[in-house]
Amino acid sequence: MQNSSDRHEYPAHWEADVVLRDGGTARIRPITADDADRLVSFYEQVSDESKYYRFFAPYPRLSAKDVHRFTHHDFVDRVGLAATVGGEFIATVRYDRIDADGLPASGPAHEAEVAFLVQDAHQGRGVASALLEHIAAVARERDIRRFAAEVLPANNKMIKVFTDAGYTQKRSFEDGVVRLEFDLEPTDRSLAVQRAREQRAEARSVRRLLVPGAVAVIGVGRAPGGVGRSVLDHIRDAGFTGDLYAVNSAFPEEQKDIDGVPAHRSVREIEGSVDLAVVAVPAAHVPDVVAECGEHGVQGLVVVSAGYAESGGPEGRERQRELVRHARTYGMRIIGPNAFGVINTAEDVRLNASLAPEMPRPGRIGLFAQSGAIGIALLSRLHRRGGGVTGVTGVSTFVSSGNRADVSGNDVLQYWYDDPDTDVVLMYLESIGNPRKFTRLARRTAAAKPLVVVQGTRHGGAAPQGHAVRATRLPHTTVSALLRQAGVIRVDTITELVDAGLLLARQPLPAGPRVAILGNSESLGLLTYDACLSEGLRPLSPLDLTTGASPEDFRRALSEALADEGCDAVVVTAIPTVGEGPSRDAALAEALQSAAAEVPGKPVLVVHVELGGLAEALSAAVSTAPQAGSQAPGAAGGAHPPPLSASLERGDPHRPAERLPTAVADRPLTAGTGEPAAGPGQLPTPPVSQTQASPPPPTPDSCSRLIPAYPAAERAVRALAEAVKYGQWRREVAEPGKVPGYEDIDEKGAAELIGGLLARGQGLTLGTDETCELLGTYGIPVREALSALSPDDAVAAARTIGYPVALKATAPHLRHRADLGGVRLDLADEEQLRRAYAELTGLFGNPHEVRPVVQGMASRGVDTVVRAVIDPAAGAVLSFGLAGPASQLLGDTAHRLIPVTDRDAASLIRSIRTAPLLFGWRGSAPVDTGALEELLLRVSRLVDDHPEVIAVSLEPVVVAQHGLSVLGASVRLAPPPVRDDLGPRTLPVY
After folding, report:
1. 201 φ, ψ (degrees, to nearest 5)
2. What pLDDT digit, counting tens, does each position of 934-946 carry?
3. What ranges make up the beta strands (E) of 99-157?
4. CA dihedral 773, 774, 777, 781 (to 10 degrees)
5. The whole model's pTM is what?
6. Burial, 900: exposed, middle or buried (Cβ in 10 Å; 0-12, 13-18, 19+)?
7. How far is it, in rounded angstroms, from Cα 939 to Cα 473?
8. Of 643, 556, 265, 206, whose CA–CA distance to 416 is shortest?
9. Per-residue pLDDT tens for 755-790?
10. Region for residue 460 given its phi and psi (left: phi exceeds 0; alpha: psi -120 to 50; beta: otherwise)
11. Euclidean distance between CA atoms 735 and 732, whole angstroms
């Protein structure tokens, strides 16, 4: 228990877990008077050289006065932080507030002197960089704006810590000492440095889990069966290239191995190092296991044990929190608990530390699933359809995070971002713990490689038990739109996830939406044509080769289509020919592969109808090594061996029977397939002919020519449409837009106005005059509306404004409801105005209930709505749509993250389905979309410049042929929410 110090209570919110440069973790916390012994012990382990660099003189030990000074802080003018591992200090940092003469001071002095000391054994791990981020954040909180540090010239490591941080700084040399001064306000460069360090650290922390040199499975039973024994068998059978150990405290002392795997009663008994421990013991025994692993230097844990937050009770949630705290104390990261496991198919690793009984086919798809059941279903589908005997389109790495208590999809994205073995990322997410960070990481990843996501619980369902999720006020459709803006390929089902993944892993991105269709079935070609139109593609007229088309006819037609400059992609449709067998399938596959290889820059897809071996032959045609039992195409009996394929996925009654894991033999059958329902640990085992060792994968060039085959036109076209949209996003992000500056924006005036208004209270909705004044500082005029609580008031208001006028009811239940009759337009004189006033009050009640206002008529145009809101999870969001109940019923609203660029604004107004109304639909005059884009940009600037503006609503905005009019507006202010994405690097606390 920490004690409070001289002036302030212990600041618990400064405590944080961080990932260091090598992937290990440390805990950063304030130093208190209770830490005297820890400080002395820490200092004794620091080398004399490091002590000299810290104190500029030999300083072998700390005096009692030193210890008191370095452990007693007021947490305002004097602050000390320590980085700890295993509860012991590994580094310290402190600041002391100083005045202009460098003497100790109190506020309002805005400068502080900062100094570090890092144990020699932990230097080079990025500890000082992490501490600098955190002490800088603390200083900003205490109104310190600048740090000063004096460093000996020979202390290059510490000088580099300061100079590499990215802050605006000044450097001088005097009296043999380097003096560094730097402002603490985050800059674009300091944020870039911080995020680059975050990416490297988190990627390495995941790599430690996926590329271990030694693995211990803890909880291995002596008899076959059970979770621990199954995981051990899976690791061994996959051919893991590192050292493997079995651990169980119940092993007799004389037992030395389990099926050839060295056996130990405790991790402590293992002589060598252990990088990864798979924990499969009851939850009550996990704390002891974590302590043993931490003391032995284990780097990470995969906890498959259940009994944590997924149970739904407070005891399970607290047990899960304590598990994470305990593991991080020792610098370990956790996948799980309640995890399905991890897989790495790399030839130099071959790790299957999961409940899947079979190693998936190696390939270049990274797969993440929060649900074990969905994860095994995805592995199963990729295994069946993933690339025939060559094993090309398989999995590089697989992570199933279970309760996601520590390692999350964000961490794995950091790893896959620059993983050379992963080309495509597929993710099944049941929740997003930090949407703001996920969006940022997704945008960066999608700019380098495709990221396909399917999200569960998207129709208002609660997040799964065990998943800590930040509260969001945004509907799922809005979150989905924001993910698409970040380049994420959003699909709705795991079938679509696999369909899109196979296309993106096998084919180049299309350059546009123009699609050529050819095949030997006119009907299937027309279905494909209609599907293209439904998905927003631009199909060319289908080319019917007739049912008598030979493989050579297909090759010639495909070559011509690919050579056509008016074509961006080709869909080949094929139906079986009566009397032809596997040899024709192989010949057709080779013909298509040959044509596709001539123009490798355009994607080709095949829609096949019960063509037996065509899907397999398409995948196998580019094999660079002979397969067991196979012959050259066209040779006697030359059919390729039947690999796992799409026909398997369709439940082909002629496929060979599969061996099922014992654990699923008595599961209920899945409706319509005759197969056991998928469950934890079930990965369909291939037929006997497929269980031989996989050959080496082909070269990247041959991988790119694999043609994906689909059993339905709609599935193929949907996957192609996603690839087209993603390709367009990649081209747009290569030329990012700009946030224009407007000379008439008064940012300082707006800040002063907001500060004065917030002085009244913590949160408020502005009145009409205040709203107009604030919006006016950003060049957003609001058309004047005058209150009219009597007919005479209405007449007086109309005379002030000038006829014609509009009379509106502004009561909450009538506001913006023209459909209820609460608006009267084009009132040309006093008589019409008085008559309209009487009708309005007669229909809805007395004036105090109706709250009538009189407003000048705006030019005729299209009524639209512009809104901005700051969501606590996703950040600032700008929304646009047309006004009226039709758009509300259809949910026809587009969204963009703030700050919005000129390209974002242009795409925003074109993203809604009713956008044609803005561009001259059915002969109407196009409206001034340029003025509308400028309005969107100004609103974006207002919210981005002033985070105190938490909500803006402009409704309606009438966009005319020339210009626009904002007829109604509201603004809500509140103290700015905490932006953890701008603060120091921290691991989430659940």
Report:
1. -65, -50
2. 999 999 999 999 9
3. 111-118, 146-151
4. -60
5. 0.82
6. buried
7. 20
8. 206
9. 999 887 766 889 888 999 999 999 999 998 899 999
10. left
11. 5
